[in-house]
TrEMBL record:
GO molecular function, one term: metal ion binding
Record-given protein name: D-galactonate dehydratase
Assigned EC number: 4.2.1.6
Gene that produces this protein: dgoD
Signal peptide: none
InterPro entries: DgoD-like, Enolase-like_C_sf, Enolase-like_N, Enolase_C-like, Mandelate_racemase_C, Mandelate_racemase_N_dom
The Mandelate racemase/muconate lactonizing enzyme C-terminal domain, residue ranges: 144-259
PANTHER family the record matches: D-GALACTONATE DEHYDRATASE, D-GALACTONATE DEHYDRATASE-RELATED
Major enzyme class: lyase
Record key words, sorted: Lyase, Magnesium, Metal-binding
SMART domains xrefs: MR_MLE (SM00922)
């Protein structure tokens, strides 16, 4: 079996100006596979699509079942691939996911079976980024009551765990500049964040779980100040308190005593290596669609397991990213929880894929369809810039 051509898709803007990029790899026996780059936001949308165009020709004529051979070719034949960031590894990720999709369809097996089987049939999920709104309320949360209301909506949908950045917006719902979140936080912002956390914790009560999100906007001084103050609110883990530097992450963990999560801005096993060896984090968060695809992220998960570090795959893309993440999470022993981002259920985002995987009472059922369990929709092809590489 050989790869004959590749369609690259750069979707029209969906809500909040997200623009996912996809690939579809075709073979000479009629099987095709789909993949996604998880850079539909954050200033790298055009670059992700452009990088796929740069690398796609390397795949033509190769055997799609030889994912390790293809991965090494992409990695070693891109000059900037060594120690690369999200753009190059994002393109490699999309192609790699598509190859695993082809392999699953070829063997009539879901991805989790190719990876050795299911460790579990169901995956607990959390409601992610409630500061952005939840359900029908898609506006920045400003008052403590806004945070409480969004939490109530998530609980009504069956979630038991929520993740919130309490320092994204000020009292008026305007974004707090990063300059106000470094060195030491002002009493005003600390008090504002605490009132919000209190409101959320009151809704969650004792059995609800809270993940504290920071998007690496605090530095080690403000992160420690923040973490120490709020450790009394029973935080499940503190996500990205600082940039993905193992020394800084270790410092925050040691000073606050909180479990630390990081990894969405690490892009290969080499990025994670020192973080694992230093036990800088307790939860690893690689993104399958930016950290090298299934081939690389499975290795990252295995490395984490040797250090007894849990894994929560970062998911912030379409339902294609959701389905491949659910498959891998089902197969690993060190799964912690699945991220369910509100942007996944935007109507236009849902229209980009053939199948819609949603949690029931905060729990996902592992997909059983062959391959990664999802496909790019006809709607996506009609509402995207499409480039074909032969």
């Amino acid at each position: 079996m050989k790869i004959t051509k590749i369609d690259l898709l750069y979707s029209d803007p969906v809500e909040d100006n997200w623009r996912p990029s996809f690939c579809r790899i075709y073979t000479d026996n009629g099987i095709y596979g789909d993949g996604e780059v998880a850079l539909s936001y954050g200033g790298a949308k055009e670059a992700a699509f452009a990088e796929m165009k740069e690398l796609a020709h390397l795949l033509i004529g190769m055997n799609p079942l030889e994912h390790e051979i293809v991965w090494q070719k992409l990695y070693r034949n891109s000059f900037f691939g060594k120690n690369a960031g999200p753009v190059i590894f994002g393109a490699i990720s999309a192609f790699d996911v598509a190859l695993w999709d082809i392999k699953g369809k070829y063997y009539h097996a879901p991805l989790w079976e190719l990876l050795g089987g299911k460790q579990r049939d169901h995956l607990k999920a959390y409601a992610s980024q409630l500061q952005m709104g939840w359900g029908e309320s898609r506006r920045p949360a400003a008052t403590p009551q806004d945070y409480a209301n969004n939490t109530k909506i998530a609980l009504e949908k069956g979630f038991k765990t929520v993740k919130i950045n309490f320092l994204t917006f000020d009292e008026q719902g305007k974004q707090i500049p990063w300059q106000r979140q470094t060195a030491f936080l002002s009493p005003n912002y600390l008090n504002l964040a605490e009132e919000r956390i209190k409101a959320v914790r009151n809704v969650l009560e004792e059995n609800g779980e809270l993940i504290l999100e920071n998007h690496a906007l605090t530095d080690k001084l403000s992160a420690v100040q923040y973490g120490k103050m709020f450790s009394k609110y029973n935080i499940l883990y503190f996500e990205e308190p600082v940039k993905p530097d193992p020394d800084l992450l270790s410092y925050v963990h040691q000073e606050t005593g909180l479990n630390i999560a990081s990894g969405e801005r690490m892009y290969s096993r080499w990025d994670f290596k020192r973080t694992f060896y230093q036990n800088s984090i307790q939860v690893a968060q690689p993104d399958i669609c930016t950290a090298g695809g299934v081939t690389e992220v499975k290795k990252i998960c295995d490395m984490a397991d040797t250090n007894e570090i849990g894994v929560q795959i970062h998911v912030a893309g379409s339902n294609l990213a959701t389905s491949v993440s659910l498959n891998l999470e089902a197969a690993i022993p060190n799964f912690v929880i699945h991220e369910y981002n509100i942007n996944t259920e935007m109507s236009k985002m849902l229209s980009l894929t053939k199948y819609d995987y949603e949690p029931e009472n905060g729990v996902f059922t592992v997909p059983d369809r062959p391959g990664i369990g999802n496909e790019i929709s006809d709607y996506a092809f009609k509402h995207s810039r499409v480039v074909t590489i032969k």
